Amino acid sequence: MADVIARANDLEASREAEAELTASLEGEPIAEPLAAGQGDKPFSSLVPAIIGAANLMQTLSATVIANALPSMAVTLHVDPVQLNTTITVYLLALAVFLPVSGWAADRFGAKRVFLIAIALYAASCAACGFATNLPELLLARAAEGAAGALMGPVGRLVLLRTTPKHDLVRAMSVLTMPSLLGPVIGPAIGGFIVTYMSWRWIFFLNLPIAALGLFLVTRYIHDIKEEDAGPLDWTGMVLTGIGMAAVVFAFENLGKNSLPPLLAPSLLAGGLAMLGVYALYARRTPHAILDLKLFRIPTFFASVVGGAFMRMGVGATPFLMAILLQVVFGMSALQAGLMTFASAAAALVMKTTAPPILARFGFRNTLSVNAVIVGVSFMAYAILTKSTPHWIIYMILLTGGFFRSLQFTALNGLAFADIDQPQMSRASTMSTMGQRLAQSIGIGFAATLLRVFQTHAHAARLTVGAITPTFLIIGAVALVSGAFFIVLPANAGAELNVRTRGSRV
What we know:
Growth Hormone, Chain: A; 505 residues; globular
């Protein structure tokens, strides 16, 4: 079960790409701070695709590394279980450095930081590929996580500051397409590389993507930064970084036997305590690294806090489906991968339909109704048995993938509907941290539920009887998010649906 959990954790780290936003561009460098009249420029998908390609590096790495762990263990002369720490180290570095990303973009310029992040990510991937022992690999993975913590939020910030709000939904649809390819093609590429080549090529695979990204960002994106970034809040960085790392690590290990019984709960309590201390500290600090006042904005609050209940389900579902299909139904990893491909394919299809749906029904109605559909889709997995015809499984996965992707497209746009430009950097950082935390909680919550139901049934191994009620509870949690959306004003996010003449995709 620990191997399946590790694979699911890694997959979910890649699906943070679902939360990324995007921008617009014509055929020349126009990615500059928005000025009067700039919102009339026709929409183009080039810049969203550029930022999406950078995100593709992260999703590819996250989805292929799990397949390579056994081969890596042989080469590095370590136990395969020890190599799970390569995933943990990445996630911890991500959590520690996320809070500083917004300040760095304001202080040094979003383009410069984004370029540095891409270069550092490529260099750390190369270091992983050349590693000759476990300590070297862990150090390289930590650097990779730090670069990823900057690359995601800062790339989003570039897009937020250069995209008219009426183009935001279409832009985010373009951006997530390259990112969604990672979970689709990653397992197949990883399997091919491990089978016919060296595992080291899993890391080298990102180098040409990074080189292309550096060229395109340099060519097509202008620098953007705030005039007054303020001093770096070192105290806040320590409190939030260590607090987030402790909470994420604790949730990632709930339901496992990899830690002493009381260590995970202790880390969780300590991490939450540090975040609580930060909340008190931020009230009297003008330049706090995370601006908690953002939660006073109804649309941002609904997206981050309300959306967290939905993201818990998205964090738990790949983990639960991997166990259901492989451990309980006895499918091979390839068979299970082909099954879950349906969900990713539906998500890709949805990206072209989200803008007209949101324009027709509005954000409040779409999110409220769709929350029910998504929650029910989680619950629908509970009816699956080993004898369920495969076409029914495919249909359930297709439906769930489509409506989940619609929900997150709407959530990611709504978060920034009422955010002013000076607040964008901190809002981007806060939103990314909320997404990462919610997905980690979802995995830990699902693993804990499985262990509780397995123990209650006195079963030696996981069965459908343990997984079925877990799906039902996860679906019920997702339904809670609807309460945050139904209370929004009817015109919430209306500015995102404004259309301008001359728009093109």
